[in-house]
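Morning!

This is the sequence you dropped in the shared folder:
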Amino acid sequence: MFRSIAAASLLVGCSLGSAVAAPADENPYKQGPVTDVGFIRVKYGHMLDYLRYLNGPYRLEQEALKKAGIILDYHIYAATPHNPSDPNVILTVTYPNYAALDRGDDIDAITAKVEGSLKTADKAASERNSYREVIGSELIQELVPRGQNVPMPPPPPPPNGPNK
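The structure's back. Tokens below.
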């Protein structure tokens, strides 16, 4: 009988010890917002053309996506290329999480509203390809330290473009 009580006490003690130790096993961070970083190379002599687009339809679409709660924020950066294959414009769009990327139908509806139709948006994108090249993009996720409630601003883009 004494052995049964001792064994039960040991089992309960080990269980409580595990429960107390659980917070130490918890990740010291939580998954934060997801940022899509786009690396763009605008051809010489066409920067103003591209900036007009960014200040027009692009900005209107991003603001509508923000208002709809699909994105948290967006930014446009000028970059100094170090060689001909580096970007000279970097675009960031920050989503609350990866799940927001699955809202393609909602995003398409906003694009169609801003651009007139998806076909018009596709045609405009194709025309922009005559003076700019999308070098690549990268999805990055912020790691928010536990205990921090306010998301930090999006990180600055990598200095030398994708995969460097």
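Headline: DSSP finds four helices and four strands in the chain.

More detail when I'm at my desk.
O.
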